[in-house]
Write a structure and sequence with these properties.
about 30% strand; 5 helices; two-stranded antiparallel ribbon; about 30% helix; five-stranded mixed sheet; globular; alpha+beta
Amino acid sequence: ESGKMTVYLEAFDVKSLVEDVAATVKPLLAKNNNQLILNIQPDLGPMTSDLTKVRQTLFNLLSNASKFTENGTITLSTQLDQSGLSSNVTFAVQDTGIGMTPEQCGKLFQAFSQADGSTTRRYGGTGLGLAICKQLVLRMGGQIGVRSAPGEGATFWFTAQFAHSGVPAFDPRSPDGAYFSSRRLDSWSILVAEPHAAS
């Protein structure tokens, strides 16, 4: 909300990441009797990006697909695009769920907004998941979107730079005088809140 989000770059294997997320979301898939299909482009090599943000976005999209799909199929696929000046990976989560109208799709990435009131009553949720995904993806310099039609499921996709060049961190000093810093330790991120003396 404050706009203070730092991108941490590290090299990781896309296939291993996807398999890890798939294992984490497995209980949600089983709840609605859904099947997950992984369609991962082979031999991608190591990707350099923010592992935590990519993982969180994938988990949120798979969780959504699991919620709105029953007795169906969810497919997670990747595609490397090297046609432009930089290489990008597109992650796509396709489901066979209830689908949405164009009007409903237009509201999805706004905070505290869902497709409509009836969807909220039936499926629950805060309406924050996709808004958070949008902020994570944009902070990494990527794009996010959705394709859907009523009764025909939905495909949520986002792009991430395959070899991220880095983004300068925001000023970590918050308006209330507290100082927040994030320190990297191996594969862990530690958030430290320290008092900040007024100047």
